[in-house]
Amino acid sequence: MQTTATPWLSLAIWVPIAFGVVLVAVGRDRSAAVVRTVALVGSLVGLLVTLPLYAGFDASSAALQFVEKAPWIERFNANYHLGVDGLSVWFVLLTAFITVIVVLAGWDVIQERVAQYYAAFLILSGLMIGVFSAVDGLLFYVFFEATLIPMYIIIGVWGGPSRVYAAFKFFLYTLLGSLLMLVALVYLYYASGGNFGIFDWHATRLGMTAQILLFLAFFLAFAVKVPMWPVHTWLPDAHVEAPTGGSIVLAAIMLKLGAYGFLRFSLPIVPDASHALSGFIIVLSLIAVVYIGLVALVQTDMKKLVAYSSIAHMGFVTLGFFIFNAVGMAGGIVQMISHGFVSGAMFFCIGVMYDRLHSRDIADYGGVVNTMPRFAAFFMLFAMANSGLPATSGFVGEFMVILGAVKFDFWIALVAASTLVLGAAYSLWMYKRVVFGEVANPAVATLADVNAREFLVLLLLAAAVMWMGLYPKPFTDLMDASVANLLQHASQSKLPAGVAAH
Amino acid sequence: MQSLNFLAALPEIVLLVATCVLLVADLFVPDARRNITYVLTLAILVLTGAACWWLLSSGIVTYAFGGMYVTDPMANLLKLVAIIAVALVLVYAQSYARDRGLWKGELFTLSLFSLLGIMLMISANNLLVIYLGLELQALSLYTLVALRRDDARSSEAAMKYFVLGALASGFLLYGMSMLYGATGTLDINELADRIGTGHVASRLALVFGTVFIVAGLAFKFGAVPFHMWVPDVYQGAPTPITMLIGSAPKLAIFAVGFRILVEGLLPIAVDWQRMLILLAVASLVLGNLAAIAQSNLKRMLAYSTIAQMGFVLLAMLSGVVDGRVMAAVNSYSAGMFYVITYALTTLGTFGIILLLSRRGFEAEEIADLRGLNRRSPWYAFVMLLLMFSLAGIPPTVGFYAKLVVLQSLLGDSLQGPMLWLAIIAVMFSLVGAFYYLRVVKVMYFDEPLAGSAVPIAATTDMRVALSVNGLLVLVLGILPQYLLKLCTDAMLRTLGG
Fold it and tell me: Which of A35, A347, B100, B131 could form a disulfide with A247 if both were Cys (CB 3.0 to 4.6 A apart)?
């Protein structure tokens, strides 16, 4: 393990949180302009301090990098132990990047309780980076759970008409999953001889029954978060009711917390159970891809449509993880990053239209291209990316997963590949109905095209989507060593010596 | 054992003498200058607290008065928290009590006497002394509940509290007499010795005695099915008194439970362990479910207390793993940590209720918190922290309280009934999260009612104390190690000494 002099990870976590605390403590609606500027500075500084993580990352090593370790809770032998490897480093960067986008996205839209709004997002950003960089089980859990509080407030305060229902459903659903994970963590603490280190757990031997139970506990926590079919029902509600910024963060990052959990906990800690139950996960993933894809097709609310498409895309991610080959797994991770950009962009586009027309109903639009040509061009790119068109980031991950699936089982790959049809169908059909055609709604005729701020956000997201689509090598290079290492871990039986693997 | 050892009872002696002086001195204080009594009371509390701190930091375990009284780090830590609790009650109560004519000498002296009772209970090492402490505490509290004598609900609550409290004391005393009959001793250590060596006249009397003791304790904890008094008394009593009942006595009853069950009746732990399992599960289930249905905040907090006490019982019952000290230290320090953090959080919560009450207006409905974030973002935030702490969501201290209990429950027995208890406990915390979330919802998502936009008036000391109280919940949630270590060390020395 390599330690660094500057605690970059701690900075990445605590800089946004510190800015958030300052905003909530002294920010007032009277000085909204100052508040916005401070929030933007906070998110930019937050992004800046994550850049050394990319620059200084040693891609050839699967070991933990930028490690920080300090004793935390003596009683549990828990440490303030941070570090990133190829699996997590991208998500730290993604979170910091999306936070900048979110701050810009809410710039003119949020007029009430501005300081609290930005504070919630900045604190949330720090907490999520904490989840991705914690390598101590207890620390991970604290960050994982703490993210619920700001998100609950964001949905409930700045959300739509039935925001209260959505906020409660979001909170209780996710809490249900994570409480059982807490029991599992305490169990692992004892099983590993009084230790909360995630990497110590990787070496812990566990019997098959224990592994299955642990797997199920982790599964419930992470499946709710991903979300996988059939525990996905909170997501459409939360997405529809949340303000634009909330939807962006939910789709782009919060869903990844669950998928990341599978990589960090389920696969390496209980590999035998993961293998034994992989069929189960694969079936659920395929249902998400096909069935939820069909559900997305019939939505009339744009936000709901993108929410369902998120579930379908995340089905690809879990599929990639549980077919146990390097291409599939790397594909799953690439898909996660790509989905972060694409879904964030989709929700931002819908937000741009909603700000002007205050409707998310597809039927209220049509002919937007006539009044908002620049916007329509960007929206086109993102819709294409959402349907997995080559040369966009959406293609890379899906292609890799399908490639991996073919290696694993041709028929699974065939079913998974149906997403290329379904994704194109729901994304492009929505795009057609919203952007092309005659201007049916007189309000659409008066729409103004994107302003400079919106243009900047769209440009940033488009650049990310195109970069990942055209030249994904930097992304995969960073994760290859870690993926290989994880697969090697996941292929070793952790059953106690003397018990033959099945 | 030394005969008399006044040093061991130093805090109590200081408190008793000072309270008696105050009792007389207060007669000469005119109503308009009651602040003098207030300041004197706080000074007494500081002095008593200093004595406790001194004993705690010296880490001694000594017996006094022929073994009837014991001072150990556990006792001193709990006493210290109880003193802080009483002090906070008085600080928070100021404007509320003034507006309602409760700002009288009785409030101070009775609070101090109940504190004395609490401290006696915590340190008693003899069944009769425990009973004396309990009665001193209970009688002072009965009177305090009835302090608003022309208020019908308050009088009703006092009556109910008195009748049911007397019944509980009766149970406890009856149980003690049976233990005495079975073993011929009232001394706790002696009790354990005699039961352990088989010097028991009647096994039946012993077990029956234990049943009565557990029932009496359950009454005082407010555990289901002995919880009936809790919601009515919480709702009916003047809010500062509810706050007092909800905080410091829980610390004392935890100590009493520890002394009688763990130190005295350890050899028959299998028997009382099962009873505690039933009580704990029933409290978790009923407390959490009934709290959902409440619209009155004080009543909701009463049911939430019932559920929280279920967790304390879980910690108490998890410690008995055939005489191994480390597991016991884990469990009982978990219980201690739980009651301490619970007391801290409850104090803050009632502090917010008192803050929002004003002359002629009791902020006791959940709806009275509507739009608090508009009226006062800071106190809304404090209340948010307190609610998430009660719900056990990190990064607040309530999370670690639940975690240590889970940790001690699971212990080394990774399979079996304890695992199921742990799962029941976490599942009902999920139910509990719902009604705590509802309070947050009302404060943040709802708009204030028309006409409720009265500026919040509070004295400076209350503002400071309440803010520190709220922040402490967060700070201890990020850095829980110091308090945890304090509890673990105290328990280690108490059990080892």
Answer: A347
